[in-house]
From TrEMBL, chain A:
NCBIfam families on file: PDH_E1_alph_x
GO annotation (BP), single: branched-chain amino acid catabolic process
Region (Disordered): 1-32
Sequence ranges of Basic residues compositional bias: 9-21
Keywords for the protein's UniProt record, in alphabetical order: Oxidoreductase, Pyruvate, Thiamine pyrophosphate
Superkingdom as given in the UniProt entry: Bacteria
Domain Dehydrogenase E1 component intervals: 63-344
Gene Ontology MF, one: oxidoreductase activity, acting on the aldehyde or oxo group of donors, disulfide as acceptor
Full protein name: Pyruvate dehydrogenase (Acetyl-transferring) E1 component subunit alpha
Keyword Oxidoreductase: yes
Automatic annotation (TrEMBL), chain B:
Sequence intervals crossing the membrane: none
Protein's organism: Streptomyces albireticuli
Database matches in SUPFAM superfamilies: Thiamin diphosphate-binding fold (THDP-binding), TK C-terminal domain-like
Keywords: Oxidoreductase, Thiamine pyrophosphate
Gene Ontology MF, one: oxidoreductase activity
Cofactor: thiamine diphosphate
Oxidoreductase keyword on record: yes
InterPro entries hit by this protein: THDP-binding (IPR029061), Transketo_C/PFOR_II (IPR009014), Transketolase-like_Pyr-bd (IPR005475), Transketolase_C (IPR033248)
Protein name: 2-oxoisovalerate dehydrogenase
Domain (Transketolase-like pyrimidine-binding): residue spans on this chain: 6-181
Length: 384, 326
């Protein structure tokens, strides 16, 4: 896989018409969008970002997206069946997450929101590990350092600062890894995101801010968060920003690779706005029919990230029927594994309430743990 | 090394210096902590000796300071951050409560957050609004945080050493009105455990519990009471989370009376918790209800009125008299 990363060092936002054949101009009145694969599955070039993938790599990205979508759909079903208390679906955002997740190196560090199931997949976090918090058996529970994938963060935008601090540490260590912070269009309004932009710029921290603009912050459209395209905010902080077609896995991969490489080589932070769409509800508790029209969703269905890669693979003859059939079987097996894991996931022991509150212990926790244990034990004595 | 006499400010400075020397992962960060040495000069000279990479002037953004400190801790550093004044900690309160305090538990203990947050606190320095507050109860209420406050130079040095060595987040409240009070520091001593209270004056008639700036006030009250033939015991609590209830209980079982003193508002303050717990533990030993002396349920007043708002010698003695009258 080769990615031209020189572009990100010298960001250009000139007309895409400068490039050779098959470049795509932005729609009138809309900012330019980096795109390498059109919604129709047509491969196009971009003057600043290019990518050259083998057939196997392309099939790999397709597989990642299909399995992620299948796992996500299974989780939604499990919530409907009462097995999960809540689920935040990534439906529609597979390309943004797989493209950026596959751009990271093992030694990079990822700070997700609570919707980055596709990125978790790329990092090697088992999907069943993500479900504990949604079932209510823990608040995260995986070891962040095992896959350099931090815990999901629910308070909107907080993790942008953690990523920045972590990146400051990477720079102090003289390491050449990079950090990527995920957040959404809603989080872009949070002070913590603004402060993360400031700190990262001031200290030239090796962090990439990956904003999935999925157009909706629960019920509020992006117009309620900003008067300028989000990627343009970076300019005010002194680092480059770029908008990428978030439903184009190739463009997301190319742009994120370039941004991470830029960070790794001491050129500081960069903001990527992945322009995408939340096809489902905010969470399983949400009802999008209250605030958005079906027509909008239908428009975005035509830009589906998986469909366009499928069209491309088919047209170019890069995958055969056996591949797709095997993938379907694999997806079903993954769904079954997830289903079985959730249904058999045990409730935590009562005493977990008092565990890991402090690393060095705390007298009050010890006292209350003992009181609680004695109270619980009193029922056992009564029943004897 | 023999004991030396130095101020609280110099003791904290010396403690930071020791920590920076002993552990390359220790960082000092905050607003104006570098060239200026902090608005109270607590970090004076540290950047000159340890460089801008370890003594870091930050942008003026408290949430950013604590949020990036969390990230640095996740990377293996031990940041000691300074919040310039008590009343400015609130932009960082979200990061402290929702992130710093909970992350160890959320990760099932797999990550540690050794972050120290230093906050100069309390009044009586004639400052403008937001520069004189005592928000310690707002932090002690949060599981996952430890909250301490030294009252003298020796504790200032040792408790900061212990806070930095702790793998838990510690909120370290500095009694700014006592910054220039001098006392003995023995750097070769073995310090008491960080969360243990200390009896700073023995007495038989009543126990006064205080911490930070109010310890000196209570010692003065005890001296004045002695002239009237009353024997007051004074406990320096030192830690507001966890609270050394055993030490208070042991004292109250002897004296039968307890008055808790802090600058923070009385309502739902540290004293309220102590009163409730000690009443439960010492019900049959108590000769009087536990009384509290502290700030009022009012915004911190303009400085011309702060002497009326803050507990002083007379208000402490008034509470002592009321407790003894039962």
């Amino acid at each position: 896989m080769t990615v031209d990363s020189t572009a990100a060092r010298k960001p250009r936002r000139g007309s895409s018409k400068r490039a050779g054949a098959k470049t795509r101009a932005a729609a009138p009145g809309e900012p330019e969008l980096v795109q390498l694969l059109t919604p129709e599955g047509e491969r196009v070039e971009h003057p600043d970002y290019s990518i050259d993938l083998t057939a196997e790599e392309l099939r790999g990205l397709y597989r990642d997206m299909v399995l992620t979508r299948r796992f996500d759909a299974e989780a939604t079903t499990l919530q409907r069946q009462g097995e999960l208390g809540l689920w935040a679906s990534l439906l529609g955002q597979e390309a943004a997450q797989i493209g950026s997740g596959r751009a990271t190196r093992a030694d990079d560090y990822v700070f997700p929101t609570y919707r980055e199931h596709g990125v978790a997949w790329c990092r090697g976090v088992d999907p069943t590990n993500l479900l504990g918090m949604f079932r209510g058996v823990n608040h995260g529970g995986w070891d962040p350092n095992e896959n350099n994938f931090h815990l999901y963060t629910i308070v909107i935008g907080s993790q942008a600062l953690h990523a920045t601090g972590y990146a400051m540490g990477v720079a102090k260590d003289g390491a050449d890894s990079a950090v990527i912070a995920y957040f959404g269009d809603g989080a872009s309004s949070q002070g913590d995101v603004a402060e993360a932009f400031t700190f990262s710029a001031v200290y030239n921290a090796p962090v990439v801010f990956f904003c999935q603009n999925n157009q909706w912050a629960i019920s509020e459209p992006t117009e309620r968060q900003t008067r300028v395209p989000l990627y343009q905010r970076a300019q005010g902080y002194g680092f480059p920003g770029v908008r990428v077609d978030g439903n184009d896995v190739l463009a997301v991969l190319a742009v994120t690779k370039a941004a991470l490489e830029r960070a790794r080589t001491g050129q500081g932070p960069m903001l990527i706005e992945a322009f995408t769409y939340r096809m489902g509800a905010h969470t399983t508790s949400d009802d999008p029919t209250k605030y958005r029209r079906d027509e909008e969703r239908e428009l975005w269905e035509a830009k589906d990230p998986i469909l366009r890669l499928r069209t491309y693979l088919d047209r170019e003859g890069l995958a055969d029927e056996a591949f797709f059939a095997a993938l379907e079987t694999e997806a079903d097996a993954l769904a079954k594994r997830v289903r079985d894991a959730v249904r058999t996931m045990p409730d935590p022991d009562n005493m977990v309430i008092f565990e890991n509150i402090y690393a060095d212990g705390h007298a009050l926790v010890d006292e209350e743990r003992a009181q609680f244990a004695a109270y619980q034990a009193s029922f056992a004595e009564e029943s004897n | 090394m023999a004991a030396e006499k130095l101020s609280v400010v110099k003791a904290i400075n010396a403690s930071l210096r020791t920590a920076l020397e002993n552990d390359p992962k220790v960082l000092v960060m905050g607003e104006d902590v570098g060239k200026l040495g902090g608005v109270f000069r607590v970090t004076d000279g540290l950047q000159k000796d340890f460089g801008e990479d370890r003594v870091i002037d930050t942008p003026l953004a408290e949430s950013g300071i604590v949020g990036t400190a969390i990230g640095l801790a996740l990377r293996g550093y031990r940041p000691v951050v300074e919040i310039q004044f008590d009343g400015f900690v609130f932009p960082a309160y979200d990061q402290i409560v929702t992130q710093l305090a909970k992350m160890h538990a959320r990760a099932l203990g797999k990550i540690k957050l050794p972050v120290v947050i230093r906050i100069p606190y309390g009044g009586a320095i004639g400052a403008v609004e937001h520069h004189s507050e005592s928000p310690e109860a707002l932090f002690a209420h949060v599981a996952g945080l430890k909250v301490v406050s030294p009252s003298n130079a020796s504790d200032a040095y040792w408790m900061l050493q212990q806070a930095i060595q702790s793998d838990d987040p510690v909120i370290y409240f500095e009694p700014k009105r006592r910054y220039h009070d001098k006392s003995e520091l023995d750097r070769s001593a073995i310090p008491a455990p960080l969360h243990a209270a200390r009896t700073v004056r023995q007495g038989t008639d009543l126990t006064l519990v205080a911490y930070g700036p109010m310890v000196k006030t209570c010692l003065e009250a005890a001296a004045a009471a002695e002239e009237e033939g009353k024997s007051l015991e004074v406990l320096d609590l030192r830690s507001m989370s966890p609270v050394d209830f055993d030490a208070i209980q042991a004292s109250v079982e002897r004296t039968g009376r307890l008055v808790v003193v802090h600058e923070a508002p009385v309502f739902l303050g540290t004293g309220a918790e102590i009163a409730a717990r000690i009443t439960e533990r010492c019900f049959y030993h108590l000769e009087a209800p536990v009384l509290r002396v502290g700030g009022y349920h009012a915004p911190y007043p303009p400085s011309r009125l702060e002497d009326e708002y803050l507990p002083g010698l007379d208000r402490v003695l008034d509470a002592v008299d009321r407790a003894l009258a039962y």
